[in-house]
Amino acid sequence: MKTPRRAMFGGAGIAAVALGAAAITRSSPALAATLSTDLLPSDGTQLSALAATLAKAPRRRDFKTVPMILTTPDQWDSAALDAVIAYAPTPKQVWDNTDIGSPWLNLMRNSLNAQIWAFKHPDFLAVSATHGTAHLALYDQAMWDKYQLAKMVGPKFKTNTLILEKPAGKTNASDYEDPSGAFSPDDNSIPALQRRGVVFLACHNAIWEQTGKLIAVGANPDKLSHGALAAELTNHLISGIVLTPGIVGTLPELQRAGFFYAK
Questions:
Q1: Which of 184, 240, 45, 57 lies closest to 124, judged by CA?
Q2: Average pLDDT estimate for 122-148
Q3: In a domain, 52, yes or no
Q4: Does a structural domain hold residue 8?
Q5: Is 150 exposed, middle or buried (0-12, 13-18, 19+ CB in 10 A)?
Q6: Rounded (5°) CA angle 108-190-183
């Protein structure tokens, strides 16, 4: 299996990706994905093509209010979601992730490693169908601070540490056997997996339900309506996330398209 593209292109390649993503963001009112994909397998051509498509797909993050049930594609990231569902190479896997404190990131990393280097599937795609408390990891730190989201998950997470890059991610990407490197447990984070092509799907229903819990406990400093507070959380999903109208309802669409289900 060939080395990840970071080892091939170095800093110049990363810079080019960053500049291209920045141009997309400036040219559109929607939020484009601003992610590096430098850890993709260099021979994963179809996975690279999907990453490029997702980087250009719009992410609407200017909502003022949202309804309880989404009914039209403009209310979620339909172009990006459609691209994921249409991804042809096999195998491909969707993870039903519900618990922020579980080893969900580690399991997806292990699956990637085995598929890419043991079974020689460089175009293997892993998708996180994220809901439950795991969904809290998809909000930026500003939302964690403003709405005290740590109280929803207990003492293990005082801040959203899962969105932070780790030192292991800066190691030599050509050495995939490095026990402390970019493909090891030392680099379990959402950004690290995104750099490897993992797609994190967000759940509107989870956003709506978490908003209701915040309102119920009085964690609503701006006294927003349910729809307005849910819109604010939606607008603060981290970069690269693909919003769906609901994860439980999206899972059948992914399974019908050939994704293998993992829990």
A1: 45
A2: 98
A3: no
A4: no
A5: middle
A6: 55
Peptide linkage before 41 cis (omega within 30 of 0): no
Rounded percentage of the chain residues whose pLDDT exceeds 90: 83
CATH number at residue 239: 3.40.1260.10
Is the pLDDT at 12 greater than 60, yes or no? no
Give the separation between CA 213 and CA 31, rounded to whole angstroms: 27
Asked whether residue 41 carries a pLDDT value surpassing 60, the answer given is yes
Neighbours of 163 (CB within 10 A): 18
Neighbouring residues of 259: CB distance < 8 A, sequence distance ≥ 6? 92, 93, 94, 127
Which amino acid is present at 36? S
pLDDT at residue 63, as a whole number:
98
Count of structural domains, the chain = 1
pTM metric for this prediction: 0.89
With 90 as the cut, is the pLDDT of residue 13 above it? no
**And the tokens for 246?**
């609901």
What are φ and ψ of residue 205, in 5° steps? -65, -40
Question: What is the b/e burial string over 172-195, where b = at least 16 CB atoms within 10 angstroms of the residue's CB?
Answer: ebeebebeebbbbebbbbbbbbbb
Q: What is the mean pLDDT of the chain?
A: 90
Euclidean distance between CA atoms 145 and 178, whole angstroms = 35
How far is Cα 212 from Cα 225, in angstroms, rounded to an integer? 10
Instruction: Give, in order, the Cα–Cα distances in Å from 145 to each of 53, 148, 219, 245.
Output: 32, 5, 11, 26
70 lies in which domain range?
Answer: 63-262
Residue 156 is assigned to a structural domain of this protein: yes
In this structure, is residue 12 part of a structural domain? no
Q: Determine the pLDDT at residue 18.
A: 35
DSSP SS3 for 261: strand
Q: What is the pLDDT of residue 7?
A: 45
